[in-house]
Amino acid sequence: MVCVLVDACGWVALIEARLNLDASMKDVVGVAELKLLECVDKELESVSANRKGLLLELLRNRSEMIPDVGGLSHPDEMLLSLSSQNGWPVLTVDRDLKRQLIEQGGSYIEITSGRFLRMVET
Question: What is the pTM of this model?
Fold first, then answer.
């Protein structure tokens, strides 16, 4: 089982692409154990006020909630820190976050234009 950190924009992109969570992750990492930071959950809650159908209950039920990382204020900083410490890929489409992950030797899972997930590693 592979742990995968979920970024807000990555979850939104997955839902918008209408990808099946289990099947898509299985093709990329096998069985995925999703990790959801409290701040990312709050960010998604805020986004869902304007966008319906984000399946937040599915995400919450399928994820382990992780407390925010002390001493860090931005979700991206926390995702980078946890990814680096644990070797966990991040589900994201954020270009800046992807660049930073690669620079620090991390990995990410992105949604491609062909409606597939793809793992990018250094």
Answer: 0.95
Per-residue pLDDT tens over the stretch 67-97: 999 999 999 999 999 999 999 999 999 999 9
In the CATH scheme, what is the homologous superfamily, with its name and number, of domain 2-121?
5'-nuclease (3.40.50.1010)
Instruction: Write the burial class of residue 40 (CB in 10 Å: 0-12 exposed, 13-18 middle, 19+ buried).
Output: buried
Q: Which of 70, 63, 68 is nearest to 14 (CA)?
A: 63
Amino acid identity, position 40: V
Nearest to 39 by CA among 77, 86, 87, 91: 77
Return the structure tokens found at 56. 């937040």
Hey, where are the domains in the chain? 2-121
